[in-house]
Amino acid sequence: TYVVTENCIQCKYTDCVDVCPVDCFREGENFLVIDPDECIDCTLCVAECPAEAIFAEDDVPADQQHCTELNATLARGWKAIIERKDPLPDADDWNGKTDKLALLKR
Ligand code: SF4
Ligand code: F3S
């Protein structure tokens, strides 16, 4: 599966949603996750994300390993997002900031 990591938090550009052939993105208030049961590993979303937040499960950076389980857990409770929408208002300011996990709205 592919995994959305912390840099998506407070950005949520949603470009990833447009290219996913199986609509496996799930939406929270300030983060998206990938439903690992639906992702077919097509790789298309990786290049679309302006925050470079998406990785193959095997390539998730060491400090983002917790995100694999986080995607699986949140995907169970969040609804599908199938169309791109505007990013969050200060997305460009938040892009690249570290330690955003505390800001995650579940
Ligand atoms: Fe969707 Fe493909 Fe990305 Fe998986 S790798 S989330 S199937 S676009
Ligand atoms: Fe998030 Fe990147 Fe998609 S910021 S919403 S994973 S395009």
Protein described:
InterPro entries: 4Fe4S_Fe-S-bd, 4Fe4S_Fe_S_CS, 7Fe_ferredoxin, Fd_C, FdxA, RnfB_subfamily. The chain is α+β, with helices and mostly antiparallel strands. It has one domain: Alpha-Beta Plaits. It is built from four helices and five strands. A three-stranded antiparallel beta sheet has the order 3-2-5, covered by helices on one side. The chain is globular. The relative contact order is 0.32. The mean pLDDT is 98.
Kindly report the spatial arrangement of strands forming the biggest sheet. Answer: 3-2-5
What is the beta-strand fraction? 5-15%
- Profile the largest sheet: 3 strands, antiparallel
Mean pLDDT: 98
> Measured on Cα atoms, how large is the radius of gyration?
12 Å
Report the CATH C-level class.
Alpha Beta
Low-confidence stretches: none
The CATH topology is Alpha-Beta Plaits
Structural class: alpha+beta
Bound molecules: iron/sulfur cluster, FE3-S4 cluster
In percent, how helical is the residue content? Answer: 10-25%
Please give the CATH architecture.
Answer: 2-Layer Sandwich
**What is the count of helical runs?**
4
Dominant shape: globular
Q: Report the strand count.
A: 5
Instruction: Tell me the number of structural domains.
Output: 1
| SSE sequence, one letter per element | EHEEHEHEH
Terminal CA distance: 21 Å
What's the gist of this structure?
With 106 residues, this protein is of the alpha+beta class. The chain contains four helices and five strands.
